[in-house]
Amino acid sequence: MFDAMQWLNEPPHWSVDDGTLVVTTGDRTDFWRETFYDFVRDDGHFYGREVTGDFTAQVTLAGKYETLYDQTGLMLRVDENNWVKTGVEFTDGTAHLSCVVTRDFSDWSVITAPEAAKSVTLRLTRHGTAIRVQFRTPDGAWQLLRLGYLPLPATCQVGVMACSPQRAGFRARFSDFTVTEPIGRDLHA
Q1: Per-residue pLDDT tens for 112-157?
Q2: Where do the domains of the chain lie?
Q3: Handedness of CA 76, 124, 7, 73 (dihedral sign)
Q4: What is the distance between the alpha carbons of residues 136 and 8, in angstroms, rounded to a whole number?
Q5: Which residues are registered as beta bridge partners of 90?
Q6: How far apart are CA 59 and CA 162, in angstroms?
Q7: Which of 1, 111, 128, 138 is the most exposed place for a label (fewest CB within 10 A)?
Q8: Largest distance between two CA atoms of the chain
Q9: Residue-level pLDDT at 19
Q10: HEC states along 93-119?
Q11: Contact yes or no for 23/45 (Cβ under 8 A)
Q12: Where are the beta strands (DSSP E) in the chain?
């Protein structure tokens, strides 16, 4: 679960109880580089560990998404210039599934989150330089959210992240976090 993990930008309040991590964010935290907004932010809360080679990371996310850009998710990180974050983000008045791939510049893609979901389960798989992001639909099927390219060294970091770019005090919950051998490469199974 959350063994052998370390904080990048430790939040003001956090706890792990019975395998669930609860985080309360600091003020105006985010991960973003340049695109559209012309700023760099690398002060979001990331709780991660090193992993070598291909893998699948999975987590169930929940939060009290109320303010623009409140977000929870998984993060794959090489350094401040090269990373992926994916999860749930509050924008346009509702929760969306979100994915940002950063190679010096961030991009951003969103889709509306499943309405029936009080929590969302996501998984991120590394297959060499290909990063596959999927979410579990309310009927239990896995749906592709993003297939992206990110050149990675053999060892990188993976974990969970939470940010609140417009405020402090966003409360996020992470459960059932695992890092395992990678799932198969068949995208359409």
Answers
A1: 988 756 799 999 999 999 999 999 998 899 999 999 999 999 999 9
A2: 6-180
A3: positive
A4: 28
A5: 95
A6: 13
A7: 138
A8: 42
A9: 95
A10: CEEEEEEEEEECEECCEEEECCCCCCC
A11: yes
A12: 6-8, 13-17, 20-24, 31-33, 40-42, 45-52, 55-63, 71-79, 82-91, 94-103, 105-106, 109-112, 120-127, 130-136, 142-149, 155-163, 171-180
Angle 19-61-173 from CA coordinates, rounded to 5°: 55
Q: How confident is the model at residue 1 (pLDDT cuts 50, 70, 90)?
A: confident
Core vs surface per residue 68-92: b (16+ CB within 10 A) or e: ebbbbbbbbbbeeebbbbbbbbbee
Query: How many other C-beta atoms can be found within 10 angstroms of the C-beta atom of residue 167?
Result: 16
Among the listed residues 102, 93, 98, the one whose alpha carbon sits nearest the alpha carbon of residue 31: 102
49-78 average pLDDT score: 98
Q: How far is CA 43 from CA 25, 46, 85, 183, 187, in A?
A: 11, 9, 13, 31, 34
- Give the whole-number percent of the chain exceeding pLDDT 70: 98
- Annotation: CATH topology of 6-180: Jelly Rolls (2.60.120)
Confidence (pTM):
0.96
- Please provide the average confidence, as pLDDT, over all residues in the chain: 96
- What is residue 184's DSSP assignment? P
CA dist 167 and 185 (Å) reads: 39
